[in-house]
Amino acid sequence: MAEGFANAMEGRVIAITGAGSGIGRALALNLAGKGALLALADKDGEGLAETRRLLGNRPASITTLDVTDTPALAAWVDGAAAEFGKLDGIINNAGLSVVAPFADCPRADFDRVMAVNFNGVVEGCRAAIPHLRKSDRAWLVNISSVFGMMGYPTQSAYNASKYAVRGLTEALYLELGQTDPNICVIRVHPGGVKTNVARNAKQVATMPGQVSAIDSAAEFEKAARTTSDQAAAIIVDGMIKRRHRVLIGPDAKMIDIITRLFPVSYYKRIGAFLGGNNR
Predict the structure, then answer these.
(1) Residue 209 has what pLDDT?
(2) Which CA distances in Å does 121 have to 21, 36, 162, 213, 262?
(3) Which residue numbers in the chain have pLDDT < 50?
(4) Catalytic annotation on 173?
(5) In CATH terms, is domain 8-274 a member of 3.40.50.720?
(6) Exposed (0-12), middle (13-18) or buried (19+): which is 264, by Cβ within 10 Å?
(7) Given this model, what pLDDT does residue 139 score?
(8) Is there a contact between 117 and 68 (Cβ–Cβ < 8 Å)?
(9) What is the predicted pLDDT for the residue at 207?
(10) Angle at 80 between CA 76 and CA 82, to 5 degrees
């Protein structure tokens, strides 16, 4: 890399969704510290304003939007490219979850998770790629999850959305690798990260015999081993080193190993651990 790792992000224009808290905010602060110019978006206007305040006088624009509003999302991406004169990267990070067994999950909640976590990523990619093609070195980063590597009860909507993000990103990696090798396509699989996703997840129902959904979120908070700042540092390192796949946290690495070693039976092991008996 001609300009070296240290200056890889200097002057690069990066758009980030879900920048009002958690990994999105941490990414903004990390990238700004490396000289990147930022276009930040989030549905939470107050959280987004706080991210902007934390950035101080570093170059960044903020836009309050819902990623399911496709015209607004496209206008934000185009506007960022126009404002800064180019777009070198997009990190499709916005996401949410609902806790419920599939049979108990209201259609509207399931569809909302898919709309934000998957369709928002699709439209972010669709809007950004024409701009990224003009960059000499660009990044298209999609945030999946360890739940895009393994199924888990009460997370059918989240699983579906994150597996879809994984599949989309793998296809884009292969396609753009042929047509636009300047675009580094990265899929990210965070494990337990201390963010608002679990805390803010809509609690509908749990499996029979499990703790309440609220207690489940609290347990997740205790078990989460990685901070948002640590997650952001790993993602940015992956961008600089132009890796295709980024795992975040020891739990993500462990799940990766288990699903590779037992691709057919890993879910049976999980089911047995959780007390299930279906075959």
Answers:
(1) 60
(2) 18, 22, 10, 27, 29
(3) 1-3, 215-218, 220-221, 273-274, 277-279
(4) no
(5) yes
(6) exposed
(7) 98
(8) no
(9) 52
(10) 115
Task: Give the integer Cα–Cα distance in Å for 190 and 204.
Answer: 24
Determine the pLDDT at residue 132. Answer: 98
271, 278 contact by CB (below 8 A): yes
Q: What are the tokens at 50?
A: 């706080």
Report helix, strand or coil for 68.
coil
DSSP alpha helix (H) spans, 85-212: 107-114, 120-132, 156-179, 196-200
Give residue 264's pLDDT: 83
pLDDT of residue 199: 53
Catalytic-role residue among 158, 163, 266, 267 = 158
Give CA–CA dist 142/279, Å, rounded: 34
Phi, psi of 88, deg, nearest 5: -105, -15
Encoded tokens for 30? 């990390």
Measured distance between the N- and C-terminal CA atoms of the chain, rounded to whole angstroms = 51
Rounded to an integer, what distance in angstroms lies between the CA atom of residue 31 and that of residue 14?
Answer: 8
What's residue 22's pLDDT? 95
What is the rounded CA–CA span in Å between residue 63 and residue 40? 6
**Is the separation of the CB atoms in 27 and 91 below 8 Å?**
yes
Q: What is the pLDDT of residue 113?
A: 98
For the chain, the domains span: 8-274
